[in-house]
Design goal:
The chain is mainly β. It has helices at 2-22, 389-392; strands at 38-40, 47-50, 60-67, 85-86, 94-97, 105-114, 117-118, 125-128, 134-136, 143-146, 156-163, 181-182, 190-193, 201-210, 213-214, 221-224, 282-288, 301-306, 312-319, 325-329, 340-343, 347-356, 363-372, 397-402, 406-411, 417-421, 448-453, 457-462, 465-472, 499-504, 508-513, 516-523. A hairpin with a 3-residue loop joins strand 30 (499-504) and strand 31 (508-513).
Length: 538
């Protein structure tokens, strides 16, 4: 009996020791070194960062970026309140950084974090951000387009061009079977357009094409084509007084919708003018009494809203090259007052600022639309507009929802929902929904569109996927138990590829469909269809 008891005690001791070993902590993040992040850039001014999830899985990550030759601490990102920093959740495997300089090279590093601290920084990765196409014209009637090859490299590109003041759809190139289009292979970085009218100005934009779809359109670049007899070379700065060309984008061309407005290229000069500057950029652009949000020399389009009581605005523009000339239209409405004065009518007031480089050929036009409020009942309260979306990188805004303190805006070309303060329209990135769910046939989720919340859950439609995704408002995590799955099959496409806008009264959710002329109704309780509440025959 004594020996048996001793054996039992020994066995019990071994079991206790084994149990203790079983609960010993595993590998610590302090010794978890992440591999260098993988970088890609398929959109102008945008960088996508992907990584492998370490073990153990962290609570979140800290990701930092800066220009390759810049200092981590002194660099401040144009679209984040904290300098070049993001804090993706531990369940994320990629993020997209917006608002970067097209064509610039950036370095990125990251580390894993949990309640016990942070792991070591990864090795740095460096990549050149995709830039807008660059134009040059050295031969009469031809225009050469060059570009930075995006990462990953595409299968091919689509280049579209038209006269600068013309319509994309109605223009037909004399040397292409299809209107103003060319499709260079993915291993090229230049293309020459021929058969153009010597001396005329043309606009150009392009997009990368992959097996699973096309990327977004680049920013437009514009340039004058070499004339048959180039004008004489001059080394004196010239003033441009002619009416600058205005750009009209053909709204009927569905392929061209959604082109962003970031960046533009510096046009190349003629061979005989290589000693003259081609810099046609601004160093500053401001409006008074309400200023532009987030000016950048590579951003060409701006909008801002003022109250109905504001009848005049003052435009100020500075040149990066002192030999360039600047022309602002409309003309100065009060030459006795300081600065360039523009009289404002109720509604939209477009202003163009055209910079002509010293070579007298390279130009760049900045567009500023000043929206003045309308006093009529239900009139436009332009001073309450959110003018900072473009500066934040929120360039393809689609859906929005607000709790009266914060307004959330979805972006159809990004995998996030941006947050803004209602009080002063400033950014509040701490309330963003980042890294939305990866959903076939495109990943990441390129097209979050309609959004609606009951204050606890945020529901998000996806143009390319037949469902509505649910997220917790508190921590922005996924709540798949509240998803609307398998939305109604609707011709001409099945399943319903294009749910867009959504709204609910708390009992029923109504969903619009881009391809179908009705609004579908669903029960909020169990996500089932309620066709009795459909809006038919729209």
């Amino acid at each position: 009996m004594i020996a048996t008891s001793a054996r039992r005690r020994a066995l019990l001791t071994l079991l206790v020791l084994a149990a203790g070993l079983a609960v010993l902590p595993g590998k610590s993040l302090a010794s978890t070194s992440m591999a260098a992040p993988q970088l890609s850039s398929t959109v102008v001014g945008q960088l996508t960062v992907a990584w492998d999830t370490p073990s153990p899985v962290p609570d979140d990550y800290r990701l930092m970026w800066a220009p390759e030759d810049g200092d981590w601490l002194s660099y401040r990102s144009a679209n984040e309140t904290e300098r070049g920093n993001l804090y993706p959740g531990g369940d994320q495997t990629h993020v997209t950084i917006d608002g970067l300089k097209p064509g610039g090279r950036y370095k990125v590093m990251m580390r894993a974090r949990d309640n016990n601290g942070s792991g070591p920084w990864s090795a740095q990765s460096v990549l050149q951000v995709r830039g807008a196409p660059r134009l040059s014209s050295d031969t009469a009637g031809s225009l050469t387009v060059t570009w930075d090859v995006p990462s990953p490299a595409p299968e091919s590109y689509r280049i579209a061009w038209a006269p600068e003041d013309g319509d994309w759809l109605s223009y037909r190139s004399v040397n292409e079977a299809e209107r103003g289009n060319a499709y260079p292979s993915g291993d090229t970085s230049s293309y020459t357009i021929t058969g153009l009218t010597p001396g005329d100005r043309y606009k150009v934009m392009m997009r990368a094409r992959y097996n699973d779809g096309s990327g977004p359109w680049s920013t437009q670049s514009a340039m004058g084509v070499q004339a048959n007899e180039p004008p004489p070379v001059t080394t004196e700065p010239l003033s441009v007084t002619d009416e600058p060309p205005t750009e009209t984008i053909g709204a009927r061309d569905a392929d061209l919708r959604g082109a962003d407005s970031k960046g533009d290229s510096k046009g190349g000069g003629n061979l005989g003018r290589q000693n003259l500057s081609t810099d046609a950029t601004l160093s500053s652009l401001s409006v008074s009494p309400k200023d532009i949000v987030g000016f950048d020399a590579e951003t060409l389009h701006y909008e801002l809203g003022v109250a109905s009581t504001v009848t005049t605005a003052t435009i100020s523009a500075g040149r990066n090259n002192s030999n360039a000339s600047v022309v602002i239209k409309p003309d100065d409405s009060d030459t006795t007052a300081s600065g360039h004065q523009v009289s404002l009518s109720a509604g939209r007031n477009p202003v163009t600022v055209t910079v002509t480089a010293q070579d007298t050929t390279t130009t760049r036009t900045y567009w500023v639309t000043i929206n003045r409020g309308v006093t009529a009942a239900y009139g436009w309260k332009a001073s309450e507009d959110l003018d900072g979306l473009q500066a934040a990188g929120n360039t393809a805004a689609r859906g929005m929802w607000s709790n009266a303190t914060t307004i959330w805006v979805s972006d159809a070309s990004d995998d996030k929902i941006y947050a803004y303060n209602m009080s002063d329209k400033s950014r509040d990135s701490s309330k963003d929904f980042n890294g939305l769910i990866v959903a076939p046939p495109f990943a990441p989720q390129y097209a979050p569109t309609g959004i609606w919340s009951d204050g606890t859950t945020m529901w998000v439609t996806n143009y390319w996927y037949g469902k509505i995704f649910a997220y917790n408002m508190s921590d922005k995590s996924r709540d798949s138990s509240k998803d609307f799955n398998g939305l109604i099959v609707a011709p001409p496409f099945a399943p319903q590829y294009a749910p867009t806008g959504i709204w609910s009264d708390g009992t029923t959710m109504w969903v619009t469909n881009y391809w179908y002329g009705k609004i579908f109704a669903y029960n909020m309780s169990d996500k089932s269809r309620d066709s009795s509440k459909d809006f038919n025959g729209l």
